[in-house]
C-alpha cells in the first residue's frame, strides 16, 4: 500500500487570546473565500476532516478549522490548573474575532455546529459586518438541560466515556459505523471538565432567545442546516429561528447533531448548494 498525505496543512498559531498567551492548533485546505469552521462542545476541529478533504469545497473555499483552547491539540493557557474552565458568550465571540484577526481573514464565512451553531447567532446579532455569510449547523436559540452536568467532571467515573455516552444518541441511527465511532472517540478524548465548561455556554450563558428578532440577515446572510435526528437542537428550534429572521433553513434527512463528522458525504451534499449561494452574493 502506497502512503498518501491528505491535502490538509496543520500548524500552531501563537497569539494572545483573551488576555493570555496561547498556542492554538489550526488546520486548513483549499483556496478562495475563507470558510471558518467552529467545532462542537467537548470536541475539536477533527470533526471537519470531511470538509477539509473535499475537493468540491476546497476548489472555491479556503477551509480553516481550529481547536479552541483546552480542546484537541490546543492546550490550556499556563496556570490552567488553578481555575475551572467555563465558556461564556462574551469570551467565545471575542475568541473567534481575535483568531480571525490573527489569521488575517477578511470577512470570512463562519460555519459552526452545536455551540458553534449557537455562537453564529451571536455573531449575526453583534458583528454581522465582520462576515460575508454565516452558516449555523444545529442552531437553536436555547437548549434546556436534559441530563445532569455533574457527571461530566467526576473523579469516580471515566469522564470521556460519560461524555461519549451523553452524546451517542445524538448521532443519526443511519450514520456509517466508522464515522459514528470516530465522532464518539473525539469526545472520549476530551479533557476533564471541558465538555461541562462548554455546556455552561450552551445551556445557560448563550441563551439568545430574546435577541433573535433583532438579527437582520440583510446585514449578513444567515443559512441554517439541522439534522432530522437532533433532539438537542431540534428541527422546531431551527425553524423558529428561520421564521423570526427570514433565514433559509433546511432539515437534513438522515443526519443528527454532528453532520460534518457522522456522515461527511451526506452532509456535503447539503452544504454545497449553500456555498454556491454564498459565492453568488
Give the helix/strand class.
Answer: alpha/beta
CATH topology: Rossmann fold
Task: Tell me the strand percentage band.
Answer: 15-25%
Mind describing the biggest β-sheet? 8 strands, mixed
Q: Work out the number of β strands.
A: 8
Radius of gyration: 17 Å
Mean pLDDT value: 96
Specify the CATH homologous superfamily. Alpha/Beta hydrolase fold, catalytic domain
Number of domains: 1
What keyword list fits this structure?
281 residues; alpha/beta; Rossmann fold; 10 helices; 35% helix
Q: What would you note in describing this structure?
A:
With 281 residues, the protein is of the alpha/beta class. It has a single domain (9-279), classed as Alpha/Beta hydrolase fold, catalytic domain (Rossmann fold). The chain is 35% helix and 18% strand. The protein contains 10 helices and 8 strands. The protein has helices spanning 49-52, 55-58, 89-102, 115-126, 159-168, 177-188, 194-205, 235-245, 259-262, 264-279; strands at residues 9-17, 20-29, 33-38, 61-66, 109-113, 133-137, 222-227, 249-252. An 8-stranded mixed β-sheet has the order 1-2-4-3-5-6-7-8, with helices on both faces. The model has no long low-confidence stretch (mean pLDDT 96).
Summary?
The chain has 281 residues and is α/β, with parallel strands linked by helices. 35% of the residues lie in helices and 18% in strands. It starts with 8 loop residues before the first strand and ends with a helix.
Outline the secondary-structure elements.
Blueprint: E1 9-17, E2 20-29, E3 33-38, H1 49-52, H2 55-58, E4 61-66, H3 89-102, E5 109-113, H4 115-126, E6 133-137, H5 159-168, H6 177-188, H7 194-205, E7 222-227, H8 235-245, E8 249-252, H9 259-262, H10 264-279
Parallel strand pairs: 3-4, 3-5, 5-6, 6-7, 7-8
Antiparallel strand pairs: 1-2, 2-4
Helix pairs in contact: 5-6
Amino acid at each position: 500500500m502506497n502512503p498518501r498525505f491528505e491535502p490538509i496543512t496543520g500548524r500552531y498559531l501563537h497569539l494572545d487570546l483573551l488576555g493570555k498567551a496561547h498556542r492554538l492548533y489550526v488546520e486548513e485546505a483549499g483556496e478562495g473565500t475563507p470558510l471558518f469552521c467552529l467545532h462542537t462542545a467537548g470536541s475539536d476541529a477533527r470533526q471537519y476532516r470531511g470538509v477539509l478533504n473535499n475537493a468540491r469545497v476546497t476548489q472555491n473555499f479556503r477551509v480553516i478549522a481550529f481547536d479552541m483552547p483546552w480542546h484537541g491539540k490546543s492546550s490550556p493557557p499556563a496556570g490552567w490548573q488553578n481555575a475551572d474552565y467555563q465558556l461564556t458568550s462574551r469570551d467565545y465571540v471575542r475568541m473567534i474575532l481575535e483568531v480571525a484577526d490573527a489569521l488575517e481573514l477578511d470577512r470570512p464565512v463562519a460555519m459552526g455546529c452545536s455551540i458553534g451553531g449557537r455562537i453564529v447567532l451571536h455573531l449575526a446579532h453583534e458583528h454581522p459586518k465582520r462576515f460575508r455569510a454565516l452558516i449555523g449547523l444545529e442552531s437553536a436559540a436555547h437548549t434546556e438541560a436534559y441530563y445532569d452536568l455533574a457527571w461530566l467532571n467526576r473523579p469516580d467515573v471515566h469522564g470521556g466515556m460519560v461524555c461519549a455516552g451523553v452524546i451517542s444518541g445524538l448521532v443519526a441511527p443511519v450514520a456509517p459505523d466508522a464515522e459514528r465511532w470516530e465522532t464518539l472517540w473525539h469526545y472520549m478524548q476530551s479533557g476533564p471538565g471541558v465538555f461541562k465548561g462548554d455546556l455552561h455556554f450552551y445551556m445557560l450563558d448563550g441563551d439568545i432567545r430574546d435577541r433573535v428578532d433583532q438579527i437582520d440577515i440583510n446585514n449578513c446572510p444567515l443559512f441554517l442546516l439541522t439534522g432530522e435526528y437532533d433532539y438537542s437542537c431540534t428541527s422546531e428550534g431551527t425553524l423558529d429561528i428561520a421564521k423570526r429572521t427570514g433565514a433559509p433553513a433546511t432539515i437534513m434527512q438522515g443526519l443528527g447533531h454532528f453532520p460534518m463528522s457522522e456522515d461527511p458525504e451526506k452532509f456535503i451534499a447539503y452544504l454545497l448548494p449553500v456555498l454556491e449561494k454564498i459565492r453568488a452574493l
